Amino acid sequence: MPSLVAFYEQLQPQDLDRLGQLYTEDCRFKDPFNEVQGVAAVRRIFAHMFETLDAPRFVVRDAFSEGDQAFLSWDFHAGRFVIRGATHLRFAPDGRVQEHRDYWDAAEELYEKLPVLGALMRLLRRKLTAS
């Protein structure tokens, strides 16, 4: 798994052609905005990230693995945004990623940082928070 962590932390657009070495052809990927199957679809998600965000990069804070599963906690940096999240990975018998599931709170980590939507989200949070 150390090579997979290094791959995520050093990921650049030119590295996307290597995804087939790390992910199975029929892999599944899910995050708060996407749910796709197949290495080509996963590649499109990462490519879109590089096309639309300012200098995106991952910093893996913790990595644990047991058997055919791993769990990573990370910080995702893109311009002035930092999103904290986690990834659950399941591996195929050949060691490549079969399932990739990202968990992060889109409301807290993204929406609240946007000018107009953020004000609304903070207001809702105040209204819904138990005193």
Characterise the protein shown here.
By secondary structure, this protein is α+β, with helices and mostly antiparallel strands. It is built from five helices and six strands. A six-stranded mixed sheet has the order 2-1-6-5-4-3. β5 (about 80-90) and β6 (about 95-105) form a beta hairpin. The radius of gyration is 16 Å and the shape is globular.
**Count of individual helical segments:** 5
Q: Strand sequence of the main sheet, in spatial order? A: 2-1-6-5-4-3
If you compute it from the alpha carbons, what radius of gyration comes out, rounded to the nearest whole angstrom?
Answer: 16 Å
Order of helices and strands: HHEEHEEEEHH
Strand content: 35-45%
* Regions with little confidence, pLDDT below 50 for 5+ residues: none
Helix content: 25-40%
Described by strand count, sense and barrel closure, the largest sheet is: 6 strands, mixed
Q: In angstroms, what separates the terminal alpha carbons?
A: 43 Å
Content-based structural category: alpha+beta
Tertiary shape = globular
Q: Report the mean per-residue pLDDT as an integer.
A: 88
Strand tally is: 6
Topology, element by element:
Blueprint: H1 2-10, H2 19-22, E1 23-30, E2 35-37, H3 39-52, E3 57-66, E4 69-78, E5 81-91, E6 97-103, H4 106-109, H5 115-128
Parallel strand pairs: 1-6
Antiparallel strand pairs: 1-2, 3-4, 4-5, 5-6
Name a few traits of the molecule.
alpha+beta; 6 strands; 37% strand
Put the structure in a nutshell.
The chain is α+β, with helices and mostly antiparallel strands and 131 residues long.
